[in-house]
Structure formats: C-alpha cells, structure tokens
Amino acid sequence: MPAFSFSVVHLSSLSKISTKLQCRFIYARHFETQVPFSKTHYRKLTNHDSQLLHYLSKYRLQDARNMLDELSHRDQHGRIVHWTSLLSKYSKNGFVDEARALFDMMPERNVVTYNAMLSGYVQNGRLSEAWRFFEVMPERNVVSWTSMLCGLADAGRIDEGRRLFEEMPERNVVSWNSMVVGLIRNGNLEEARMIFEQMPDKNVVSWNAMIAGYAECCRMEEAKVLFDEMEERNVVTWTTMIAGYCRVGSVEEGYCLFRIMPERNVVSWTAMIGGFTWNGFYKEALLLFREMRGCFDLKPNEETFVSLAYACSGMRFPRLGMQLHAQLIINSWDYNDYDGRLSRSLLHMYSMFGMMDFAHYIFSKNPNKCIVQSYNSLINGYIRIGLLEKAQNLFDVVPVRDKISWTSMINGYLSFGQVSKACHLFYNMPERDAVAWTAMISGHVQNELFAEATFLFSEMRAQGVSPLNSTYSTLLGATGALSHLDQGRQFHCMLMKTLYEFDLILENSLISMYAKCGEIEDAYCIFSNMIYRDSISWNSMIMGFSHHGLANESLTIFEDMLRSGNPPNSVTFLGVLSACSHAGLVNRGWDLFSAMSDAYAIQPGLEHYICMINLLGRAGKVKEAEELVLRLPLEPDYAIWGSLLGICGFHETNAETARRAAKCILELDPLNAPAHVVLCNIHAANGRHVEETMLRKEMKLKGVRKAPGCSWIMLKGKAHVFLSGNKLHSQVDDMLSLLYVTVGES
C-alpha cells in the first residue's frame, strides 16, 4: 500500500468533541483566516440578521442602531441576550469586525457579552486582539480565563498558557481539561499527565483527552491502563482506543474492541474501516463497510469514503471503485470535500487503476485542491500504463516537486530500461534521500547492471546516506543471482555492524542469498535463529535444501512448517516436489501432489506438472509421465512437452515418446532450437543417422540455431560474461594463451 498519513480519525480531536459540549466558546474550530463576506454565509442568518450585518459591514452604524431599536421590544435582560446572541452568531461565521461594531454600540453588556466577543477573537485566530480585549474586560469569570487559555495553547504559546492557568482565580473541570489538551497538543505529554493527576475532579472528557494523547504518541500500553481504570466510557473513549491500536499496527486488538463496544457511531465505523485500509487489510475494510451499510442506518462521512477509495485501489477493483464514486455523486457527498482529501483519494484510485481519463477529469475539476500529492498520483498513473512522455510533461509543470515526484520519475525510467535518463534525473535531484538511492540501486539490478548497482551503493555510503533495509535486500538478491558469495558476505558484515536487529525481509534475503551461493549451512543457521518466520522464510529454506539435493532435509522443514501452523502455498509444494524429484521419491511425490488440491485447495500450475514429469522421468517412468501430460486439465505448452522430451534420454525404448513430444513442441514453436537438438541426439544415440542428418539439414534451412552457452565471473566488482564461441572479450588472447599452456602442461 502507497505512504499515507493516518488521518481517518484525528485522535486529539475526539477528546475535543465532548469538551465543546461543555464550553460553547472554548473548543470551536479556529479559522486560519477571516471568512470572506459572501452570500453563502448570509444563508445561515435570518433576513433581519443579514440586513443588520450589511449595515455593520458598511459602517452604517446609525442605521444598524435604528434597526436594533425597532427589533428590540424586550426588557433590558432580553435585549442583552438578543444582542449577545447576534454577536456570537456573527463571530462564529467569521464576521469579527462586524461583531465588534455591534459590541461597541450595545448600550448594556454583561460578562456573557464580553465572553462572546473574546471567543470570537480566539475562534478566528486574532489572538493579539483577544489578549488586549481580555486585559480590559471589567469582569472576568472562569469562561473568560479558559477561553483565553485555549487560544494561547492553540497558537502554540503554551508557556503563556501555563502562566495564565496558574494565575486563574478559579478553575472548573473545563479549565483543567483545556490545560491538559493544550499541553498534549504542544508535545508535553508527561506534564499533561501530571496536570491530569492533580485534577480535583475528572469527567469523561478528561480521561478521553489523556488517552488520546497516549494514542497519538503510539503509547498504547499506557492508554490501555487508563482505559481499564475508567468507570464511565463513551463512544469517543472506545473510538480513540480503536484508532490508536490501528495506528500502531495492532489491528486485531482494535477490531476486538470494536466488536465489544456498547455503541457505535459513524466515526467508530470509519476509524475501523480506516484502520483496516491503512494497514493493508483492504478486503476487510470493504466488508466492514458493507456490514455498516447493511445493518445500520448510518450515513458515511467524507473520511469513510477516503478510506474506501484507497481500499478499492489496494484491491485493484476498478468496478467497485467506480460504483463508490457514483454513490458519492448521486448522494452529493462529493460536495463535502472541504479540504480536497476526497478528491485526492479518488484521483489516486483511478491512477492506480490506470484509468487516466477519469483521474485527469478529477484533477482538472478541482485545480484549487490539487497539491503535490495529486501530481504524484497522476505521474505514477501515467508511468503505470507506460506513458512516460506524459508523466515527464506533468513532472515538468509541477509547481513544487517533492522527493516522491523525483523518485517516481526515476523509477519509471528504470522500469522501462531507460537507465541514462534515470541517472540524469537522479544526479539533478536537489536532495537525494535513502529511498531515491535505493530506487536507483534496485533499478540497476533489475536492468542487470550489477557492478553499477554496487558502485551506487558505495557512493551512497560515501555521501553519508544510511542504507535502508530494502537497500540491502535488493543487493543481497543481486549477489544471490550472481552466486557472488564474497560480495554477499561483505553486505552481511555491514548489516551486522550497522543494525541492532534484522527484520524479516532481511533475514529472508540472507537465507536466499546463502542458499543460491552454495552455503546451505549458513542459510540454515540464519533460519534456525529466526524469532518469527513467514511463508517466504520456510519456502526459501525448503527450496535451498531441494536445490542442493538434500531431499530429506527439505521434507523435514516442510513437516516443521505444517506443525508451526503456517499454511503451505504453491511455492512450498514446488520446493518439496523438486526435492522428491532429486531423490527419486515417486510415491512421496505423488502423495504431496495429490494433497495440494485435496488437502490445501491449491490448484497445481504448469511448474508443478513439470516437477512431476521430471520426478517420473528420473525414476524411469517415462510412459507414466506421458500419460500424466495427456491427462492434464489444461492445454500443454512447449514447456510441458519440453520437459517430457528432456526425460526421454537416449534409450531406444523412449524414442517414440521423444518423437511425439518433439512433434508437439515444433507445432507450437517451429524454430525451437532445444527440441531440434535433443531430437537429433536421440536419433544419433539410437542409430537413426538418416533421420538425424535430415533433421540437421532442416535446421540449417530454417535457420534454427541453439543459443550459445553462457557463463560469467565477478572480478573487482564487474561481471565478465562469456558466450560459447565468442571471442569479443578484450582479453580473449591472454585467456586462450593461458589455456593452451595449461593444456600443454597437463
């Protein structure tokens, strides 16, 4: 799954929800800039209120005063309540200057009026004005002090907030909660816990705030202790714990809490759906959404659909993703995309599907909501469908490129073999991080430029960039493919010096590398010391023993795997069938082959049938192997017939089977050189020289030539490749001279 921020449920905001209910002015959402005067905001006001607001905005204060006098047929208290209500309404809609004009013309005011004006300044981020207003207030109560405290804490001025808290003449539970939340939001979790413990009275909001603080910092053990101590929990408490567990990757624990929580709301469902999605459990996320819609009358929110869009892209379900988008449009839910995250999730989804027309439509429809993440999604989408030129054109117009933009383009060029263009981008990249270096190294390995990949690794370290675990995994895979043991050992030593503990992927890479380099004992030593093993660990060891002809050891590991509760897969059976083939264990091979489908519901693939053909052939059961081929549930390809042809050997008894297999191969691939060569050798071995001569002439007429044998050697970090009959190497004369001398001496 792409690196997304875990924003399905912002944990600290959960604790604020209940606090808002207790203090009307404290936890209101802050406006970063003043909301413009528009018709949209007028709709939230009555006709009289809108007219009054118009007078105030135009500084027609006398008209405003006359209108208020006409509307106010109340006693003194009633007028104050009415005017204060208007002031609060204007402030909440962002019309702070108009609210202040109304405040100034009020003939009577009380502490609630002052608090409403103070809250307006705080809510709209005008803290300097709020502070000046606070200092000249004729009367302050606990709401005044708490409102100012929240403003300072939200602005990051926590030291001033702390001093204000200490100076407060009186505090209530909301004041204490505000201090705790302010400290948490400013990264002072330990101090927040001290304040929490000093509280004379705690309510559910107090506990929720502290739990959310621990969950935000991924300290779920401490959060769980508080959760267990709570006498009264609400839906926010449970949802905070669920989101916290999902945040640290403990999805199963989060799901267990979700199942036993007494009540759920849309935020709870969304937290769990998001938890599944961001941890890669896409199927579970989609199934949970279906349960939510099927059994509960809950309307999904924007965050729900953000998670679902990523789940659809993760599952590669284009139709389901399009249905999801259609539901958004039909129900007008796409209009709730106030911050653009929903648009970006849909853009990412369509880019993952390679449906770039849809992705570009969303991109063009919401230009103001497009950030560098949007451009990166489009770039990766075009690369995914092979349109590198379009990706490059988009890359060229990105307003601000980040590291992902550069690395995506580099990966794109490398994946299509355009190494020089990738190198040009890489060395022009303003800041190269470990991910970019690893992408370059991996790309060179994929393009079989092993020496260049090793040089890049050395350059990476020389520039002080610490390699990632994936960097080492890539290099270990390359050394294993080349059977370059010395280089592999060097990488292993570097790992031992720089890493305190290995992760699972690294250990698996080491097992595979040592097994491919012929050091099966070293591979088994690493395997034996592993704390946790996955199917790749088991399969690597089974394959390693099998390729070394150690059938009994391979089968023993297979039995251990079954006892560990780790289910085998198709690769596992490929390893054990290969082991049986090397050892000639026909009956055991048949048992395992049958168990694949009967016991484990794994359908054999072509590679499994080829293993069985080799197993039977090595045991001399060529006729039985041919019968197996003829009974295949799928159409045999040239690989199947090639395996059958290969086991026929040079015995006259198998000549007819060989001819039939070769005929089938040549029908599928008339220019198949190995089939011609094997058939020629079989004719020669059985004295059929006429047929052999005719076949060789036919090969010349068709231009059929066997690919030359290939070998290589690593010397000073460079791979030297040799082809049979090829004399193009720069030192070929020296090597031939050395060979002649050696042969002469022998």
> Average pLDDT value?
85
Helix percent band:
55-70%
Task: Determine the number of helices (DSSP H or I, runs of at least 4 residues).
Answer: 43
Largest sheet, in brief, is: 2 strands, antiparallel
Strand residues, percent: under 5%
The low-pLDDT segments are: 1-45
Q: How many whole angstroms does the radius of gyration measure?
A: 36 Å
Distance between the termini: 61 Å
What is the overall silhouette? elongated
What would you call the structural class? mainly alpha
The count of strands amounts to: 2
Task: For the largest sheet, list the strands in their spatial order.
Answer: 1-2
PPR repeats: 79-109, 110-144, 172-202, 203-237, 265-295, 402-432, 433-467, 534-568
Keywords: Repeat
Protein name: Chlororespiratory reduction 4
GO molecular function: RNA binding
Report on this structure.
InterPro entries: E_motif (IPR046848), PPR_At4g14850-like_plant (IPR046960), PPR_rpt (IPR002885), TPR-like_helical_dom_sf (IPR011990). Keywords: Repeat. GO terms for molecular function: RNA binding. The model is unreliable at 1-45 (pLDDT under 50). Helix 1 (11-22) runs antiparallel to helix 13 and helix 31 (504-516) runs antiparallel to helix 32. Helix content is 69%, strand content 2%. Strand 1 (710-715) and strand 2 (718-723) form a beta hairpin. The chain is an all-alpha fold and 746 residues long. Strands 1-2 form a two-stranded antiparallel ribbon. The chain contains 43 helices and two strands.
